What we know:
The complex is a heterodimer of chains A (144) and B (247).
Chain A: H1 3-15, E1 20-25, E2 28-33, H2 42-45, E3 63-65, E4 68-72, E5 77-80, E6 96-97, E7 102-108, E8 111-116, E9 121-126, E10 133-134, E11 139-143
Antiparallel strand pairs in A: 1-2, 3-4, 4-11, 5-7, 5-10, 6-9, 7-8, 9-11
Chain B: E1 2-5, E2 17-24, H1 27-33, E3 40-47, E4 66-73, H2 81-97, E5 103-105, E6 109-112, E7 115-127, E8 129-139, H3 156-160, H4 166-185, H5 190-197, E9 205-208, E10 211-218, E11 224-227, E12 233-236
Parallel strand pairs in B: 2-3
Antiparallel strand pairs in B: 1-2, 3-4, 4-8, 5-6, 6-7, 7-8, 9-10, 10-11, 11-12
Helix pairs in contact in B: 2-4, 2-5
Amino acid sequence: MEIKLIKEIMKNFEKSNIHKIELEQDGFKIKLEKEDKQYVTAKEMEVPTVVTTVSNNEETKPVVTDNSVKVLAPLVGTFYGSPSPDAKPFVSVGSKVQKGQTLCIIEAMKVMNEISAPSNGTIKEILVKNSAMVEFDQVIMTIE
Amino acid sequence: MLYFERQRVGDKVFVRRIIRLNKVDSTNEYLKRGNFEFGTVVTVKEQTAGKGRLGRTWISDDSDNLMMSVLLKSTGIQNVWEIGFLAAASVYKTLREFGIESKIKWPNDLIVSNKKITGILVETKINESLESVIVGIGINVNMMNFGDLELKATSMKKEKSKDFDCDKILFALLENINYYINEYLMGYKSFLDICKSNSYLIGKKISIGGRIYSYMDINDLGEIIVIDEDGKTSCYSPNEISLEDIY
């Protein structure tokens, strides 16, 4: 991978709202990670962020791949895995869940949105760190 | 537990019934646990685990304060954040009817004499689509002792040096919520104007990421618009900033 391309990737990653990215090409691997948005520097915070709001039209769209169901964020917001900082998480990897069970909270505009499991199953992955910003349609968990 | 039908108010009445409890952990949690019809209102005398955002404690003592939650149908709600503003405007109007002038601290706390008098917590359930919206409102009515929060919290009684009837406040509040909901469902949002024109942030400076901004307005997305010393404007949602640093 050319240095120029790597620099380009780093530049775009820095600008994006993505917190972590791993790329692999012809045996060359690159892994980029940055801190959660709440710890961004003052300079970065000057960039206004568009806030998406929840509406009736927005839905959690479970995407089935192989045997697992991807749980997608139905809105932009802050991800919380537990009802309060000291409380037990709603679910952990390996938890058995029922359709409709609360998996997490996504906070947007001070509204706490409880996201329910789209299907029965077992939590295979939790892909978002607590207090991290999630984007619309970002995969937050997988259930199998 | 006592159930009774709410009197008819306005063209459409969203309140189906009021459940009065003596003691419960949190009125929002109570509504989440049960299978209640939309328009159910829960009030409680003693809330053992009253909560704000992220499980922050909402303290109350055994003097009568108003702690209530209402379960709203998601139908007709375009943007959930607007419901927080709707509730804030309803409380603002209610306090005013009882002689108390308050300011709305964006997005949904109410402030009197620089102290918090009301907290609002909006929670939703998204089950493939928006399923329900619960609005929890805690108004400090007759509470006099706030302990460590003495400098940060106040009550109606503290402000006016007299007792208030919680039921009268509840019914006035439900009428105001009802009014704004009817208006909202017809496409009008005068509650947004109330939140803007009575914003606690008017004339305030806010520190964001080490820089000082002046508050300007609230935009149509519910974000605040701020301006820095160089005249550059920016918009922020409540998730992005803490409003602890207000001057």
